[in-house]
Amino acid sequence: MPVTDVQHDLDNLTLTITADFAAPVERIWQIYADPRQLEKIWGPPMVPATFVDHALTPGGRMNYFMTGPEGEKYCGYWQITEVDEPRSFSFADEDFTPNPAMPVSTSVYMFTEHDGGTRAVYVSTYESAEALQQVLDMGVVEGASSAINQIDDLIAA
Fold first, then answer.
1. Which of 2, 54, 78, 98 is the most exposed place for a label (fewest CB within 10 A)?
2. Is the pLDDT of residue 19 over 90?
3. Average pLDDT over residues 9-29
């Protein structure tokens, strides 16, 4: 399994997930740069994603929805703030139309060479400890880990 560490820090309002992959940084970057590949790993296996817009550029936007087993849809978007291809990108994650009841995070995804492969560090920062606790209670660690763990199958194909 690629996920090697998960840390949440209510004092610093962060959730950090670390994963290691047996593929070069450029290959892991391609997954996030190509919406069709990203669809294969964004969201847990039972809640696949569809990206309807994909602009991995500073100021770009990536709109997506995830479809649950009963056909329910969960919409979200990333507003891309920074890109350092193929090393990192940052985004703010909200619904297509922001829902004030749902937490908002600012995330940084970083990819570095590690032991002949790639170490990915995913850091999400929330507006409050309550917002971070809300996503933890919603199962973000389990959902994100199962999504990230799908990368191994994709890079093996």
1. 98
2. yes
3. 97
